[in-house]
Write a structure and sequence with these properties.
Four copies of one chain form a homotetramer. The first copy, chain A, is mainly α and about 220 residues long. Chain A contains ten helices and no strands. The radius of gyration of chain A is 19 Å and the shape is elongated. In chain A, about 35% of the residues are buried. Chain A binds a DNA duplex (21 and 21 nucleotides) through helix 4.
DNA sequence: GATGAATGAGGTTTCATTCAT
DNA sequence: AATGAATGAAACCTCATTCAT
């Protein structure tokens, strides 16, 4: 959370803004931060707008100046954070190095982002893994579209590796992307639940070896 | 769903019971079936007790004779179904054949159970993957304990395969169990969302090859 | 008000009903009576559902069992009363006697109904005379349609009188109907505001003479 | 509306005022014009101060510099317009000609004023005919006092006509004034609702004949 | 034992009004 | 003097739960 409040300019440029506008942006961030903490802890339906307003130390009316309604607030929260995550993951797989290195980088960044944004990870897993009924109009679809678009890009890393002979054709590239993503999620889930018993591995190959090395003895 | 209503003896013995008791059990099952259908379709918070009572064709008061409150009803629903699933999965990995065959059997049964119980799968994925906030007291923990117990047993399949040389030691057996489970879940999730675009594979090796064959070209 | 509570079977038959149903009807009437008193005194927007519930001595939730929402309650109130009034007025102009007697009867019944239902008259004048913005969907239209339909019937009394030579053709029959209605309303309005200074005349001819006798000296 | 904004000197003299004061008067007029348009269209309770401020292109705070609160603004609006109307009606019945011509003139001016100030007419009818609950403190009384004062003056026209033998004594002069006023209102109401089906008559005698000629055939 | 009418706390949202800038 | 962001009371409405019948 601290990082969220402090972290400036995430997607929203604060360059040439009046004091007023900068203040409004800061207030918005405060509200989203309070909302994130609460939603993440108790879930969408168990958090009231009053609660969020109180946590953000604003009047309820002020909350409604920034967000049309509860759903709108929630969507803004999830989408803005999702964008940050997507950007970081894309940077990882578009970074330098061969396909192998890209995968390592992705696994590493995934861990870092999550370690630093635990509240959002809880929310995000709830949104993408759990059947989420909260989001009547579109967020669900929008999030899933984003995830899918990313998985396609990840699939292309596998595909490219297969084409240049670095990877074997053990499965459909998209299936591999889905599989890698879900395995990482599983490790993250274990870590979220009990960080001490199941730490997220520092070395990405601990996870990747499941894919790299064959299980069956030849 | 029909199977749920009709399906006798799932965990609850109906052997030597009075007519009264048998009727009560049948009523209870009706209620849970109606609740499952509604929760699965709309989510815990978007289903009212009135709605469940109406769907089950009982008075609201009768519902409360069987379940102390909404949460209690939900817990009973999830736990009883989870038991059925757990039993089926355990049977799969305790069945005949070597470790490889056990894994294949598990992947197959996982698919079958889910295909036949889509409403519950939706609910279950929401509960186990998504951070589930519904269940303030204990269900969460109880479910996760069950899942973990099963994962330990699955891990022991990998371990045994490693010991007798059938499997390579590519990773920690528990990690492998988690990974396999999550990959299957990922495929199920894809299937739940769009059964036509992403059918759950008939041949378990489509999934298992991700583990069996190494990705990296030697 | 007393008359409203006491007045049984006004349009709603209470003949072959179970005790339950009779009680529900009585409760509904209590609610409408409380609502009428409040709306009539303070206006639609200045009365809260809590207030109505308290006045009717029911819980707020019970109010909503009977009426979907505030507007629904208001519409039911206005329409049911309007029907009573319409019926009484129609009876007056369909009663025995020639056209002249019909008009006298109408003026008389108008006065009686209003004297006995002052709260509703206030509401009704507000609805039909004032531009009423309360009634988003349809009540406005429905009320005006009713009023217009009645005015047409009243016009036909004038028309018939003209045809059989009892009346002179001093103006368009519909215009005469509108004029008579509005003159009665004006007298009622004066009476509503200060019953002592401006009593509604016992003798209908006090009002009707405005129409019967010509003002200009020949 | 244009006439309202442009129309100078309506009751408020702008003669020897500083630029400041003239500007304030102009601003006030802008605000009242915006408020009139909105109130007339949507009704007192369905218009927010924010809305009025926005329509008048002032800050909400500025609105409150001119009017203590919403009710105050509304009262000012209604009273100032009512004064304009009263003045015009008084001029009509004080104008040249005998009693008959005064009545004709009144009917004519009534039509003109209303045709040119439809938004206010809607509001005014709502205020004077409908039981108006908006105006808790005094406006109601003040308006009605004005109306009554005018009706007394109109009554004196009838009275004078009776004294000099031009009119017959068919009814109490005040009752006749009330009746004429209400009949005109009724025609205006019809016109407001559907200007095409019920045009306000060009010839005042169409309305006045109801009074002038006796209905009953002698 | 079964019923479902009654309850009222608590949710979301609006808007008249204030006051620091 | 003008602004408009901030306020929070109060409105409408839902629904988990109880209890008299």
């Amino acid at each position: 959370m601290a990082c969220l409040r402090a972290g400036g300019g995430q997607g929203l440029k604060t360059g040439n803004l009046s004091r007023r506008e900068r203040e409004r942006l800061w207030q918005r961030k405060e509200m989203l931060a309070a909302a994130l903490a609460l939603f993440s802890e108790k879930g969408y339906h168990n958090v009231s707008m009053q609660e969020i307003a109180a946590a953000a130390e604003f009047a309820i009316g002020t909350l409604y100046k920034f967000f049309q309604n509860k759903e709108d607030l929630y969507k803004a929260l999830v989408l803005e954070q999702a964008d940050r995550f997507e950007a970081a993951f894309l940077a990882a797989i578009k970074g330098p190095g061969d396909e192998l290195e890209k995968l390592r980088s992705f696994v590493r960044v995934r861990g870092e982002m999550c370690r630093n944004n635990l509240p959002f990870v809880r929310l995000f897993l709830a949104e993408t893994k759990g059947a989420s009924y909260n989001l009547k109009a579109g967020l669900d679809a929008e999030i899933r579209r984003k995830v899918d678009a990313f998985l396609e890009k990840l699939a292309r890393v596998f595909e490219s590796g297969m084409k240049n002979g670095r990877f074997q054709k053990i499965a459909d590239p998209y299936a591999l992307a889905v599989a890698l993503d879900s395995v990482i999620d599983a490790f993250l889930l274990l870590w979220v639940e009990s960080p001490e018993r199941h730490p997220y591995p520092e070395d990405p190959d601990v996870i990747l070896n499941i894919f790299f090395k064959g299980l069956i003895n030849p």
